[in-house]
């Protein structure tokens, strides 16, 4: 029989669960309500994708400053301040009347939300060795549980109020988390002589480089023939800027992130696999609400239940993997199974126009939820296993930077791909793109609706994109 957790351990477990859930919950609300937000503010899909890019860029900026802030403030003040800024960003987004204020609110939420995932994961290291596996379960259960609850909560808020309630919800949640987590967070700081350097000018350089790269990723599929050269130049210039930043950091005695300690094949491979996993997760999170609600024409409640069950399947799959990983050898089998399930779900959605009835798509939605944890779980268990303890926090910061890049890139590419395939539908069958995505076209949804068929085409190419990832996983010998 396992020992009963002490009050201190129980408090830390609640703290880990509380601070981990908030960003995933809010992201789930925004993903589910994306088309309602666009319609309410009169945003084009490109503007919404740009706002998400700004969210990602500001998040990456603060992930680079995470350790710098902790060294000077300690985790308690840093997390509490981040909760305050996150709530302020929610207020700005909720009261916005156009793109500018909305983007500013999302930028603040990105900068502050970057704190929580890393802080929750690193708090596990404060637990006694015997309690770290329960800490990991609390961490996983919190982020996946928040993702499962978010669609249902979003549907309730949209039905009872409007899209603004998706952001007003951040206020009581931030207050509750501050109450639960605040007393448990570490207050210690680092002596001045041991702290990281400032790097403010170089971080501005980093932000410009990341924004330019994300903008190029977003614009390449949408740019006309005459604009491709400019987009290509922006992308190359951004890569050059990021290379200069990395080179400069490499030469620093106290860099923001010590890359020298991260040059290990297992870690580098794991980071690449993380990117693909979060890209898949972001694409499904963005497309499924549009597919079921705007394409098929299902109600908010029905769409929320479907997405909630899908995410719930992911939560169960994550716990199954966490249990099996300690008993069953062969993590690569789980990764290939996850990729196979993901491709299978994408192919099923790509055939929507040939099906007799939409309930046949419920199983692919569940399979989708199960697939990603089976793939990312082994990556999470194996990426950090051989890194020395003194670079663990740096390694996790980089991992979360890659997470933001994967999700924001997937949303940008999914948006422009969906628009491209919608424009390819017969002229007489479709209405204006923005009206269709905002749910204002007046056209009945269904398996043959233009938006449904366009989303099905995007799912097909997502299935094709799995093939090189599966080949890499099959051929590598690091994650076995």
Descriptors for this entry?
single chain, mainly alpha, 17 helices, Growth Hormone, Chain: A, 0% strand, globular, 480 residues, 3 domains
What does this protein structure show overall?
This protein is an all-alpha fold. It has three domains: 1-185, Growth Hormone, Chain: A; 198-255; 260-480, MFS general substrate transporter like domains (Growth Hormone, Chain: A), CATH 1.20.1250.20. The protein contains 17 helices and no strands. The chain is globular and about 70 Å long. The two termini are 31 Å apart. 52% of the residues are buried. The mean pLDDT is 85.
Could you give a short description of this structure?
The chain is an all-alpha fold and 480 residues long. The protein is 75% helix and 0% strand.
Q: Which ranges are low-confidence, i.e. pLDDT below 50, for 5 or more consecutive residues?
A: none
The tally of strands reads 0
Hey, roughly how much beta strand do the residues contain?
Answer: under 5%
Structural class, judged by helices and strands?
mainly alpha
What do the pLDDT scores average to? 85
Report the CATH architecture of the largest domain.
Answer: Up-down Bundle
The CATH class label of the largest domain is: Mainly Alpha
The N- and C-terminal alpha carbons lie at a distance of 31 Å
Query: What fold name goes in the CATH topology slot of the largest domain?
Result: Growth Hormone, Chain: A
Question: Describe the biggest sheet?
Answer: none
Q: Supply the number of structural domains.
A: 3
Order of secondary-structure elements: HHHHHHHHHHHHHHHHH
């Amino acid at each position: 029989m396992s020992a009963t957790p002490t009050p201190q351990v129980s408090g830390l477990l609640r703290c880990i669960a509380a601070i981990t859930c908030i960003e995933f919950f809010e992201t789930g609300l925004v993903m589910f309500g994306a088309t309602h937000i666009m319609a309410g503010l009169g945003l084009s899909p490109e503007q919404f994708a740009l706002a998400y890019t700004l969210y990602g860029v500001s998040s990456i900026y603060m992930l680079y400053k995470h350790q710098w802030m902790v060294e000077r403030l300690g985790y308690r003040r840093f997390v509490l301040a981040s909760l305050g800024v996150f709530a302020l960003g929610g207020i700005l987004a909720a009261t916005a009347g156009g793109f500018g204020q909305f983007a500013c609110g999302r930028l603040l939420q990105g900068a502050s939300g970057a704190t929580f995932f890393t802080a929750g994961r690193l708090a596990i290291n404060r637990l006694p060795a015997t309690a770290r596996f329960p800490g990991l379960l609390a961490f996983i259960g919190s982020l996946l549980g928040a993702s499962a609850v978010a669609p249902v909560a979003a549907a309730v808020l949209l039905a009872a109020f409007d899209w603004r309630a998706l952001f007003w919800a951040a206020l009581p949640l931030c207050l509750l988390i501050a109450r639960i987590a605040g007393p448990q967070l570490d207050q210690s700081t680092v002596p001045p002589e041991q702290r990281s350097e400032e790097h403010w000018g170089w971080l501005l350089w980093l932000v410009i480089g990341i924004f330019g790269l994300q903008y190029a990723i977003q614009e390449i599929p949408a740019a006309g023939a005459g604009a491709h050269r400019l987009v290509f130049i922006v992308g190359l210039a951004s890569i050059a800027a990021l290379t200069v930043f990395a080179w400069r950091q490499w030469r620093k005695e106290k860099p923001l992130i010590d890359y020298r300690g991260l040059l290990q094949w297992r870690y580098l491979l794991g980071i690449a696999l993380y990117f693909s996993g979060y890209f898949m997760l972001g694409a499904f999170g963005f497309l499924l609400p549009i597919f079921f609600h705007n394409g098929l024409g299902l109600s908010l409640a029905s769409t929320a239940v479907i997405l909630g069950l899908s995410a719930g399947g992911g939560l169960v799959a994550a716990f199954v993997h966490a249990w099996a990983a300690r008993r069953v050898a062969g993590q690569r089998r789980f990764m290939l199974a996850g990729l196979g399930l993901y491709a299978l779900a994408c192919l099923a959605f790509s055939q929507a126009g040939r099906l007799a009835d939409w309930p046949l798509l419920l199983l692919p939605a569940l399979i989708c939820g199960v697939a990603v944890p089976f793939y990312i779980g082994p990556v999470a268990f194996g990426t950090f296993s051989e890194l020395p303890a003194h670079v663990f926090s740096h390694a996790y910061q980089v991992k979360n930077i890659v997470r933001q890049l994967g999700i924001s890139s997937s949303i940008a590419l999914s948006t422009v791909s969906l628009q491209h395939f919608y424009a390819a539908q017969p002229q007489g069958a479709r209405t204006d793109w923005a009206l269709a995505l905002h749910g204002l076209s007046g056209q009945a949804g269904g398996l043959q609706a233009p938006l449904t068929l366009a989303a099905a085409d995007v799912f097909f190419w997502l299935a094709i994109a799995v093939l090189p990832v599966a080949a890499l996983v099959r051929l590598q010998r690091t994650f076995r």
